[in-house]
Each structure stands twice: as C-alpha cells, then as structure tokens.
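Quick question, first post here. What does this chain look like in 3D?
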Amino acid sequence: MRFLPPGFSNQKKCRLLGLFFLCCAGIALLAANPLDGETIPQGATLEVRLQQPISSYSTRPGTQISAILVAPVSVSGQIVLPLGTKIEGTVISVRKVGLGVVHETAEIELRWDRVVLANGASFAIQAKVTQVENARENVDKQGEIKGIRSTGTMSHRTSGVVGTLAFGDPIAAIFTTAGSSSVLRFSEPEISFPIGTEMLASFSAPVEIPVIERKVVPPVAASGQEAAELRKRIRRLPFRTYTQGSNVPSDITNLAFIGSASAIERAFAASGWEPVDDLNAQTTYQTVRSIAENQGYRRAPMSTLLLDGKAPEYAYAKTLNTFSKRHHLRIWQSQETWEGESVWTSSSTHDIGIGFSKANKTFIHLIDTHIDNERSKVVNDMVLTGCVTEVQLVDRLWVPKDAKNGTGEELITDGKIAVMQLNDCNAPTEEIPPEVMPLQVHGNALDRSTRQTVLTVKNNILRDNVGVMAYSGIRYGLDAKKRKEDPAAPREVEIGGEDYRIQQGFEANDSYVASSSDDAGTQTSAATEGKASGKRKASWAPPSVEIGIHSGWLGYAGGNGGLIGYLFEPTDGSGGQLLLVLANSFDPGWTIGGTITLNFQNYFSHEFSYDHSFTTLNLGLGVIDNELTTASQDALFVFAPTGLQTSQFAYDLLLNATPKTSRWRPYAAVGPSFQLMHLSDAPIKKAPNYFKLGLSNIGLISAAYSFGGTPPLEGGGIFQFGLNYGGGIRYRVAPRWMVRLDYRETLTPQPDFWSKSKKDILAGIDLGEYNLTEIGPLLNGPMRQMHATAGVSFTF
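> Answer (accepted):
Ran it through. Tokens below.
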C-alpha cells in the first residue's frame, strides 16, 4: 500500500483495496462478456464455401470439415460476422449407395459447430444445412442432404420407354439398349461435393458473439464531385438487354467493373466462376444429357443477349452438379472509362429451376426474381478474392422497377448498380489449404456396372408396374398443389460504407422515372439499336450426335437358303423310287430402320443401327424319278410364298473422307452385326388327303412368333452373326438436319431352315414297305444381304 498518500488509516486502506479488486474483477468480466456484443438469433443464415471435398462414398462420420463465409452475417443491420470468417463443422452421418443392394440413394448430414475469428478466437455455434447451392441434392427439415435416385432420372425413364417399344424383338432391344447407353449415361447416385461447394445453413439456437472489427471496402467515388461524375458515366451506360433474333426486352444490368480484361478473367477464375461454352450442336447435346441425366454441366452455354446491339464479351456461370440451377452473368465492354481504365457493364441473375413457357412453347430457366440478390452474390465473391479495391452502389432512377425478362418473369430491383474497381488480380486470396487430398467418389468400373444392374432390377420390380406408377402419378399431382417456392435467401454486402439487404415483399414501382440529364437520350438509342439487330445466326459447329431414320431396298445374293431331300425306296429292292426335294429361294423387299451416330473424333464416327426388313421366302417342291404319282397329283403340292422378316443390329466404324466440320461427308463403314430371321406365315399348304404316302403332315407349320430353340419352320427364328460393310455420303442441309444415302452389305452364313425340322416334317407317316433316307440340308456358301437406303438425321 506504499502507493497511497500518507494519512490514510488502515481501515480506509482496506476499503480502498477491496474496491480496487472489485474493479479488476468487473473489468475481467467485461473482457470475457463485452456489454456491446451481439446476439445472432435462431434462424439466421450462414453462407459458407467448403475448403475440402465431401463424398458419401468415402467420407466417414466424425470427419472434421471447414468452410469460409461467402456472405456477411448481420444483426439489426450491423455486420457481426464478416466475409472470409472460418466456420468449422462435423460430418454427423453418411449413407452410401455402394453396390445398391441395400440403399438406392445416398445421404449426408453435416453440422456447423464453431466460428473461428481472424484473431484466432473462437466460439461454439449450432447450425444445420438448409440448402446446397445449385445442387441436384435436396435437404430435408432435419438438415440431412438427400441424393438422387439414378433410376428416377429422365434418362433412365426414357430408356425404359424406348425399351418397351422394342418388346418382342430381341434385336430391337439390343439396339435401344446400346443406343440409349451411348447417348444417355446412368446417373451417378453418390453424393460428391468438391472443394468450393457452397451451402446455406441456419442457426439452430441463438449465440452471443463479441464485437468484431471489420474492414469495409471503400467507395469508388468518395467526394461529392466524384460521385456526380461517376453517376454521369453510369447514366450513359445502356441498361436493358434484348434477346437475339426475337429482340424482346430482357435482363437489366446491375454490375459494372472498372479494370482490364485480364483482371476480369483472373478475378472470376479466382472466385470459382467459369466461362461458359459457345452454343452449338455439341454443347446443345451436352446440355440435353445433363438435363436428362440430372448431372452437372459447369460450362453449359447461355442464350445470347444483346446490349446496345452487341453480344457480350464474357459470359460466366457458377454451378455445382445440375443444369437447372446456376449463378450466371454476361459482361459487355462499354465506351466509357474511369481514371483511364475501361468500364464494363454486366447483367446477373440466378437460375433456380426449369419450367415450361406456354408463350414460347419451350423449356426455360426460372430465375430468382429478386435480382439484387445476385448482384450481392457477385460483389461478395469478387471482394473475397482480394481483386476488388473499391465498390460503390450507384442509384439509377431511370431504371424501371417493374420490368420483365425475355421469358416474362418479373425483375424486382432497387435499380442500383454495383460498381467495382479491380486491381490487376495477379495475387488473389487463396482460400483452399494446400494439404487437402482428393477423395474417391465412386467405385471402379466393375462396381459401377454391378450397381447399375442391381438398381435397375430393383426399380423394375418395385416401380415399373401399373399399380405403383398410377399411385406415383396421383401422389405427385396432389403434392404439386402443396408445393410453394421458398423465398430467396437475402444476401448482404459490405460495400462503400453502406450495408445493403434486399427487402422481402418489395413491391415493383409502377412508374418509370426518367433522368433530366443532358445525356438522357443515350438509352433510347441503345434500345433502338438493340431492336434493330439482325436475326440469330445458326451455328454450324460440328454435330456430336446424329439420330436418324432411313428406308430403302433390300436384296439377296450368293445363296438361296439351302435345300433338303427325302428318298423313298421299296424294302424289297424293286424299283419305284421317289425323291422329294424341298428348296428355298429369297425374293427382294424393303427395309426400314434407325441409326445413332457418334462423332467424337474428327475423321472417325461410331454408329449403331437397327433395320427391320420385309422380304419373301419361296419354298419349292421337286419330285424326281417319280413312279408313284401322276403329274396332276404333283401339281397339287403348291406352296404359297411366305413373309421373311429380318431384324438386324449392327455397329459400324465409319471412316469419313472429310473432317466433321465439313457439310459433305463421304465415308466407308465396317463392323459386326447380329440378326434374327423368322417366317411370318406357314409356307407350305396342306397336301391332298388321297396321297398314299401320307405327306399331308408336311404343311403343318406354326407361324407363331417364338424364338429360342423353336425350329424356324415351326415359328422360331434363326440367330446369326455377320460382317457389315459398305459406304455412303451424308450432307448437312441445315445446322440441325442432315440427309444421307447408304449402301451396305451383310455377309452371313446361309440360313438353315431345315436342320431342326427335317425329322419332324415326315414324323408320324406310315412308310409301309418303303425305307426313308434324308439327304442334306445342303447350304450353298455364304449369303449377302444388300441394303440401299436413304434417310434423314437430326443432329446435336
């Protein structure tokens, strides 16, 4: 107590000392629980980005996971958790599909349980996943992530319908199976979330947090004069896009970038956005596949929108594993500059589903109508990279608040544009720890093949029956009435000292407020120029897939189907022999079929084809050395021609004379074939009753359509392998249509109609005093089937 002045009594000293310790305790308590802290309420939203992969196939329960915030968290308009804050969590449970014996779908449950601040401090939270951004997976109310069922996808159902159409024809079934498998894949049912996957989570309980110092990105124009000049530059920018070809007013611009083209490219690459592919035949095919298979296509093309009559210089998208949901934007370079750097303007929207437009009579993307949410998403992603030095929201009173896009959906906005000043972005912020190892996301080829078989068989037994399909249809219809679109989660940004949050229930402004500035006429000119743009030019990019039909002539050469003989000789050695010869011959006919051609290489194509031909088989009877019947009796043995039908499946490797970019493509073809020949009617009429050898049994041939071991003369079929070869030419008359002329030959063994039936033809005949000797069948070398066809193909 030496620091106290003299004259203090011991009692006063003790009281003062007690007060000193009480103050110290209070300071310590305040340090542990600051009075100016905040409480994050239950139900508040976290937007996080994974820093390591997660897979239902190989991730184990109990695995520790981490993520970063990609949108700030605020309470009462005050940012309490800034961008980039680290969030830690745990994998609670995992269920994989494996071989599909037990489970058809995968499940993962995650919990976020800790926040780690930039200064190393941390505190516990309770948060469950509510949505995986732009994913095909769904999240239930308990926070469990549910994977898709492979046999429930459009591709699998389509394959089932096509396969049903081939019922009763095994060759057609082979073609539909091979064709659908080559065009549409079996969807992967395991859940796989790579690094960078973004999720939304909800706080399950309120949490007290300390006040956190945050850095706000400064505005582009700090002074009033600069702000006025920036607004003037923004006023000169066109703000409304138009659809290409139809010239319908569409999206509204809501972003502007100041910087070089290379800086834009590096910034979007660092933030996980990808440039989209051009819209052509090949990418159209990939898009169709991704929709049908419920699989992702991260660089799926966009339709072209024009701004001031120009197509965009850049188009970027961010999605996960589905085509129906994605963030996307288009960027145009303007004539404006700011402090010597180029000004680029952009329109951004969030696709949240697929719908059918009655007006356009086609499928369209449905968007989050609160387009300011997407503006905030882009700003947050750009700021998080460290490539943005200044950001500012600029009011645009001249932008209509009640606009609609090109497909008729509302565009709800406050009309502001977010202006971002970019640096060179040569050293963007790294988010992913370098030690993260990749995960195995599915089994090997044998495992996947086994799983596909098991899941398909289970689906056929459990669902592909009339009762279950009817119930599912009724249930879906009833559920559709209850389903409602959840409102889009509001996004916040930290820009220019202004925290922005979209107001749910925002009402569109009915009025169009025009600017009185001297450059007000610029937008009208831009709109007019956009409308004056020409029609969309068709893309002649080479097709990936051709789906065609054809028909033409079919003939035979090099064989006649063989013959068989029956020799009757008296047992006593006397004369009077009778030799009956049954022989086949083929008449030409016509054929119809389809092809699926895959153009994955420049000069080589792979083609699956199916042909069904209709020709005629003639059965002739010859009587040699006949001493038992008269000529008039011989004439009674008349055999009516019968139909001969052939179903053929073939795989051909096409060697094209020109690359796939050429419209004219002559080619040579070679490959194996597999076919089934069967008779459509009984070819032999019943013999006369008075014929003393009782040969009336010859004509009893069934025309039933049966296969397997049934003899062909009794309604069965003849299966044959062969060699297919030939050539032709294809000509692309339009970007989506092609005509073709083909000549093919199929070389097979001579079909044997006799061997399985030669003992049955005369079965039950009382030979009496005669011995019977069977001769043959005699088959004369190989048979050639000649196909000359013409057809048309639709191309992707």
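The chain has eleven helices and 39 strands.
The first strand starts at residue 38 and ends at 40.
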